[in-house]
Design a protein that fits this description.
By secondary structure, the protein is of the alpha/beta class. It contains 13 helices and 37 strands. The longest helix has 23 residues.
Length: 675
């Protein structure tokens, strides 16, 4: 009898526990993704993947399913099999179905027994897979919360402009940038293909840096010697972008910012306003530009593949009315020329600065509104332009320049800004005149030591922030502090790690008892903030002897110039005032962040390579700006106010060991500063 009562009591406890668990279960909270989901209805429990993706539809839908499977494997190490059909329990299911409420880019996500993405277009389905990937990578088991979402962007254009003219940006980075932008549903990448550095360092225009980055067969010799893109690799990059639903807008910036063209053909430069201005009254100017645009827009397989082309048209002189009218005529001409090749023209806002009588086409023309003194967006809307919100005072990065932003104020943007705000003008949200928003990186100070890694370190948090503000608008519920913490837990993109980070929980990234010459290492590089230490029994190493290299940098045991410890990246060589002591054993530690690179020997700081201030030089002075002189001579100044902040940062290379004679042991790589 007692046994029965005990059994009954035990059964009652089980039932009570089950009832309590059931009654206390709550629907899943809105999961964290970037950009934030526009709506979410939580359900109870978690979806556990079966290992399959079910897809119905055309070839593009199958391609998206295959891309989803590849990206899922890159993020999680798990394999998904793509099958045809409507799926079964545990399957990811991708469906294209007519639904006008979702528009071109929206999607529905229904996570229950299956995880179903439904959209009216393949693009919408693709964006849905980006959400599934972000959800999956945040859980070790890849189980994701059940619930329903409807996610439609506030703005159709969500973008980033990068200045490739003043600083060469390798095509390999641009390809990764496309993947990163796509992972966060940023859909527009503008490539500023020509420009020139500020002339304050020289009194002679011929000495000022200028570059045009594309292969040119029409004008042999025009293409920059310090880095450029072949036509084929530029086309291939755009095809990759198309597969990731990112539109590439190539920009040829004329008639200002055009020193690269007047270096090549001096007779088309303005003698009155500076050689970075084209001479608008010279017929040769138009003959040259017509041929340049034709090279990239003409033919059956044009180099510029996308539907839009940016023609520049900013910051030309408005000193005389006849010049203003000629500038307006120029702008109208090249809008129509681009349209003649079947493209939509995009231009910088300049028509308030260049107000005049000559008509400039506005119908079906997009204007990048960057400064209201150059183009009042209210007036430009009245004239019929479609607007991109890219206000310089909020979203311009100029690395280490001392003006505009070095890093964007992401908290302010996250909490206050949407593309409806352009300078001091605020429009209604989703005003049909405003297509969306962008931010920009301008590399004004050529030769300032900034690396592509430094640019990326600035651009990446801005990409994540503007992704939210252009997709979700003001419909955000996650506080900035939480956003700024949790964003770091997401990958940059499947298979992409430009920052060289390994997660906040992984403190020791690499440990190796001995490094052999030519050894392949398990990680490519370590990004800011890091410590790399090793013990070395030093031998006499020839100049140029490497310890490690990656595709982005080299660390020298004996640099090519002076035989000191040093490093090279982006064409810059920086050295420490230290040579390895032949015949002695020492422990070397390198620490680096986004401002400096430091050397410690046996725990003692030897040198910190912090930013240097370089001053403008008279053209007769022989000062090497491009390799970062340790102690620049005091030059005769052309412009005493002109100065440049030279950066000596390093994302430490680890990919492959060099051919050295010394014995290197006890290598330790840490994801934080450690001595």
């Amino acid at each position: 009898m007692r046994t029965f009562r005990n059994a009954g009591k035990y059964l009652f406890c089980i039932l009570l526990a089950m009832w309590t668990a059931t009654s206390s279960a709550e629907p899943n909270r809105k999961p964290f993704v970037i950009p934030e989901l526009k709506s979410w209805t939580g359900a109870e429990g978690m979806f556990t993947p079966s290992g399959r993706i079910a897809v119905k539809g055309d070839k593009e839908m199958t391609r998206i399913a295959d891309a989803f499977a590849q990206d899922y494997h890159a993020l999680t190490g798990k394999t998904l099999k793509v099958v045809k059909g409507s799926g079964k329990a545990g399957d990811f299911v991708l469906v294209k179905k007519n639904d006008k409420t979702l528009g071109e880019e929206g999607y529905r996500m229904d996570i229950g027994e299956k995880a179903v993405i439904t959209a009216a277009t393949a693009k919408g389905v693709y964006w849905g897979t980006r959400t599934l990937l972000q959800l999956s990578e945040q859980h070790a088991s890849q189980a994701i919360p059940k619930g329903r979402a409807v996610d439609v962007p506030e703005y159709s254009l969500r973008g980033f402009m990068i200045d490739c003219g003043r600083k060469y940006i390798p095509i390999s980075y641009i390809r990764n940038l496309v993947k990163i932008m796509s992972y966060y549903k940023m859909n527009t990448l503008q490539l500023h293909l020509n420009d020139n550095s500020f002339p304050q360092f020289y009194s002679d225009w011929s000495k000022v840096q200028a570059a045009f980055r594309l292969q040119s067969d029409t004008y042999p010799g025009l293409t920059a010697k310090d880095g450029s893109y072949t036509k084929q690799e530029f086309i291939d990059m755009q095809i990759l972008a198309e597969h990731n639903y990112v539109e590439v807008i190539p920009e040829i910036d004329v008639p200002a910012h055009s020193l690269a063209f007047t270096h090549y053909k001096p007779e088309i430069g303005s003698k009155e306003y500076g050689m970075d201005h084209l001479d608008l009254f010279n017929p040769e100017t138009y003959k040259f530009l017509d041929g340049l645009f034709a090279e990239y827009l003409g033919g059956n397989n044009p180099v510029f593949r996308g539907k839009r082309v940016h023609i520049g048209t900013d910051e030309y002189s408005n000193a005389k009315k006849e010049v203003v009218e000629k500038f307006r005529e120029f702008t109208d001409r090249y809008i129509r020329l681009v349209e003649g090749y079947g493209k939509q023209a995009v231009c910088w806002g300049a028509l308030t600065h260049a107000a005049g009588d000559t008509p400039v086409k506005s119908d079906n023309v997009i204007m990048s509104c960057w400064y209201n003194g150059y183009a009042d967006p209210v007036e430009m809307k009245k004239q019929g332009y479609k607007l991109i919100s890219i206000p310089d005072g909020l979203v311009y990065i100029v690395p280490a320049a001392g003006y505009y932003y070095d890093y964007l104020n992401c908290q302010y943007l996250y909490e206050n800004w949407t593309p409806a705000t352009i300078g001091n003008r605020t429009f209604d949200e989703q005003d049909p005149a405003i297509l969306g928003g962008m931010f920009a990186v301008w590399n004004d100070h050529s030769g300032n030591g900034i690396s592509v890694k430094d640019i990326h370190h600035r651009a990446y948090p801005a990409i994540q922030t503007l992704a939210v503000k252009c997709w979700s608008g003001r419909n955000t519920t996650v506080p900035y502090e939480e956003f700024n913490t949790r964003r770091l837990l997401l990958s940059e993109a499947p298979g992409v790690n430009e920052l060289g980070t390994y997660g906040p929980d992984k403190k020791e990234v690499l440990a190796c008892a001995e490094v052999s010459p030519g050894m392949d290492m398990p990680c490519k590089e370590i990004g800011y903030n890091y410590s790399v230490s090793f013990t070395i029994d030093a031998k006499n190493e020839a100049k140029g002897t490497e310890l490690f290299r990656s595709s982005n940098a080299v660390f020298y045991l004996s640099d090519p110039r002076n035989g000191q410890l040093g490093f090279a990246r982006d064409g810059y060589l920086n050295t420490f005032n230290y040579r390895l002591p032949e015949g002695r054993k020492v422990t070397i530690t390198i620490q680096g962040d986004n401002r400096k690179t430091e050397l410690f020997v046996d725990g003692k700081k030897i040198q910190s390579l912090e930013p240097l201030t370089l001053y403008a030089v008279h053209e007769s002075d022989k000062v090497d700006f491009f390799y970062g002189v340790e102690h620049p001579q005091k030059p005769e100044l052309y412009n005493p106010r002109a100065r440049m902040n030279y950066q000596r940062t390093l994302v430490f290379p680890l990919e492959k060991a060099g051919d050295f004679k010394s014995t290197v042991t006890d290598l330790k790589v840490y994801n934080y500063f450690k001595l």
